[in-house]
Amino acid sequence: MRGILLAGGTGSRLHPTTRAVCKQLLPVYDKPMIFYPLSVLMLAGIREILVISTPEALPAFRALLGDGADLGIELQYAEQDRPRGIADALVVGRDFVGDDDVALVLGDNLFHGAGFSDVLAHCRATVEHRGGAVLVGHVVADPARYGVAAIDDDGRLTAVVEKPADPPSDVAVTGLYFYGNDVLDVAADVEPSARGELEITDVNAAYVRRGTAELVTLGRGFAWLDTGTHASLLDAAQYVAVVESRHGVRIACPEEIALRMGFISPAQARRLGELSASSDYGRYVVAVADQADRPTPTVLEAV
Fold first, then answer.
1. Looking at residue 227, which CATH number applies to its domain?
2. Based on CB atoms within 10 Å of each CB, which residue in 89, 139, 264, 292 is the most buried?
3. pLDDT tens, 137-189?
């Protein structure tokens, strides 16, 4: 399975800050926003990842992340010269995905919760075993703001309704999707919506009609934050700060995840931490590397 990380768009809801800086490069407490979705793909065991962004932002992403070799992964980059919808990422990434299945994550989504690795493993295994689509949902207080899942009495997904006036449930579909390889053809057949974009809801609807879409809803104890507004960006930063300070772990630390997943060795992780040794973040990576071969108590999973 390959991964696509969509970090495009204009970030207009975060103006004036994003007039000069791509939204996904803004800090969420102690690290760039893009570290959070990148960590999700890495936790799913995905090592070949395509970052899609604007021509103006791509040089900064390359400077930040490089080719991924330091993390034991392979990063490639592609341009989306203007916002054409989430589903356009599957069009742009067609050659990159090739004959593989694909996970798509949005660059402004933050996920965190104990057992999240198991959820990701289930989503990936389901698609690799039977194809189709697995959508990740989360209960929200204001479903009318999101794409909302309609669910029958047996818990099956029957529709995804975009920003409904009368929501059929309180489960929003998050910005994390797993698809079989045929999604490349599905996305290619999607027609632009009234706003001129290729809507991911139309892609998901195709799988719902076929009866091959599964909804995995994150339960209580999971956090899903969309960092697309000033208020939500602040909420996310405060959430990360509280969890990290209380539990002594870092959320979405790619160096730690690469080490835990076996992508890199403790020595490689230590060298990465030493590059930022003057910061708390760098010292944390060094400490994690030093402790890698020692028994440690169970802690809240860092994603």
1. 3.90.550.10
2. 89
3. 999 999 998 999 999 988 889 999 989 999 999 999 999 999 999 999 999 99
Range of the domain at 34: 2-131+175-197+210-265
CA-nearest of 27, 7, 8 to 17 is 27
Specify if 189 maps to a domain: yes
**Which pLDDT does position 153 carry in this prediction?**
87
Cβ-based burial of 105 (10 A; exposed 0-12, middle 13-18, buried ≥19): buried
Kind and range of the H or E element at 270?
Answer: helix 266-274
Give the chain's domain count.
1
**Model pLDDT for residues 103-115, shown as the tens digit of each residue:** 999 999 999 998 9
Find the helix or strand (DSSP H, E) in which 235 lies. Answer: helix 230-247
* Of 205, 187, 214, 180, the residue nearest 102 (C-alpha): 180
DSSP, res 71: G
Report yes or no on 303 lying in a domain.
no
Whether 139 is in a domain gets the answer: no
What is the model's pTM?
Answer: 0.94
Burial 178-197 (b: 16+ CB within 10 A, else e): bbbbbbbebbeebeeeeeeb
